[in-house]
Amino acid sequence: MQPTFSSSRILLPVRPWFIILSLFVALLMNFLPTSHWPGIPDWAALVLCFWSIRESRRVGMGWAFVLGLAMDVADGAVLGQHCFAYILLAYAAAAQSRRILWFPIGQQALQILPLLIGCQVIQLTMRLMTGADFPGWGFLIGPFIAAFLWIPATFLLLLPQYQPVERDENRPL
Amino acid sequence: MAGIDHAPPPFFKRGPAPLALLTFYVAISLALFVVDLRFRSLDLFRQTLSLFVDPVQRVAQTPGSLVDYAAAYLRGLQEMQADNTRLKQAQLTTAPNLQRLEHLESENERLRKLLDMRDRQKAKGQVAQIMYTARDPFVRRIVIDKGQQAGIIAGQPAIDEGGIVGQVTRVFPFSAEITLITDKDQSVPVQLVRSGQRSVVFGLGNGQLELRYIPANADVKEGDLLVTSGLDGLYLPGFPVAKVVSIERENSYSFARIRCEPIAAVENFGEVMILAPRAEQLPRPPESDGRRSNTGAPSREAAK
């Protein structure tokens, strides 16, 4: 696989344990006390979205369900709130993955933004429909920052897959 | 065409179709959502999951608490000494009241016995540390470090040195969740100290409380103190809850709009005391069907 489909650089295959580790670290970052600050992105959603696009055969709705349940229990939210949003996010990301990876990375971030906003809006709608208070617009700033972070996140999460660029006659790519 | 296997070779296997998976998972999560919200019968499921999630959460809280610890360590001796003298003075000013309290309580007990009244229940409880505020931005809850292991049960009131903080709403094996009195769905039956009028105070979700169902011409002033009335059978009577900060009386409404500020440091971190559940009350008088649907005070189940 390449970093983007238009790139000529070939990546090493992904290691499954690295996917699991990154999802776990994202969950851990979500549990940090900083998550109360306005505009802190939903790390789990971002990493889940990333892997759903890059490795839609390994990470999909099953992982979304598990992560969502963990988030619901940790948040003390209504069970199923994060689950539902993450599952739809994973599905939409996997469905778009063939298209999104053709774009250069900056434009990928723009393509991700509606997915992440959708994820927040779904949760907002679910809770508002069931009688919760509107938590303020700060709730919807997170996805914008997460979309910005798509560029460093792509770099970091692909880092173990890059290989040296030396070429010789045995390795023309 | 019998005998020809149309299944693709194993290296093309991709599991169920994405749309089928989507339907499956969406159905499960929506079912969870509805069951949890409507019937609240998933507590055991939630507790089981929390056994796995709780350690991760504690690990995530460690850097923050280490920073707090370091800050407290570096704050220095002088500040601690100042704190200490301040606390000593505070204790000295309250000492006369406290010393007489014991005397008054025993006197009260004796008089109540003379009058053949039920004994007032003494406030007992256990101190718990607040670990963090729940992340859910839609509600106001805190999580404490004591749970089923320490015998906490849902419905117990939590107080701090100022007054009522909230009520235990969910209990996990090693932690419990307290819904603050400022939460939108939380209500506390109260009594005005000055006039003795009873009412119910509701959280507004923005850190303030509202005293509802008080007629516009009622005797309420700014600065009035509200204490628990104890009519709900959960809170002991006499704990400070809130102070009236603003009153709006409009002719078009039959009720006044009364805003209150909580007295306890409800939204701050620290320690809380979880009061022991109240002893069994006298049985309630039977309610008629007409009243049950529209009473101001929450039922015992609703308060939980």
For the structure shown, list the relevant keywords.
heterodimer, A: 173 residues, mainly alpha, elongated, B: 304 residues, alpha+beta, Thrombin, subunit H, six-stranded antiparallel barrel, 5 helices, 33% helix, 23% strand, disordered C terminus
Brief account:
The complex is a heterodimer of chains A (173) and B (304). The longest helix of chain A is centred in the C-terminal third of the chain and has 25 residues, at 105-129.
Description:
The complex is a heterodimer of chains A (173) and B (304). Chain A is mostly helical. Chain A has seven helices and no strands. The radius of gyration of chain A is 17 Å and the shape is elongated. The model of chain A has no long low-confidence stretch (mean pLDDT 87). Chain B is α+β, with helices and mostly antiparallel strands. In chain B, 33% of the residues lie in helices and 23% in strands. Chain B has five helices and twelve strands. The N and C termini of chain B lie far apart (65 Å). The C terminus of chain B is likely disordered. The chains are: A mainly alpha (173), B alpha+beta (304). At the A-B interface, helix 1, helix 3 and helix 4 of A face helix 1 and helix 2 of B.
Overall SS class of chain B: alpha+beta
Mean pLDDT of chain A: 87
Q: Which blocks of ≥5 consecutive residues of chain B have pLDDT under 50?
A: 292-304
Q: For the record, give the distance between the C-alpha atoms at the N and C termini of chain B, rounded to a whole number.
A: 65 Å
Multimerization status: heterodimer
The name CATH uses for the topology of the largest domain in chain B is Thrombin, subunit H
Strand order of the largest sheet of chain B: 1-2-5-4-3-12
Morphology call of chain A: elongated
Return the average pLDDT of chain B rounded to an integer: 81
Q: Gyration radius of chain A, to the nearest Å?
A: 17 Å
Largest sheet of chain A: none
Q: Per CATH, which architecture of the largest domain in chain B?
A: Beta Barrel
The coarse silhouette of chain B is globular
Strand content of chain A: under 5%
| Beta-strand share of residues of chain B | 15-25%
Biggest beta-sheet profile of chain B:
6 strands, antiparallel, barrel
**Domain count of chain A:** 1
Radius of gyration of chain B: 26 Å
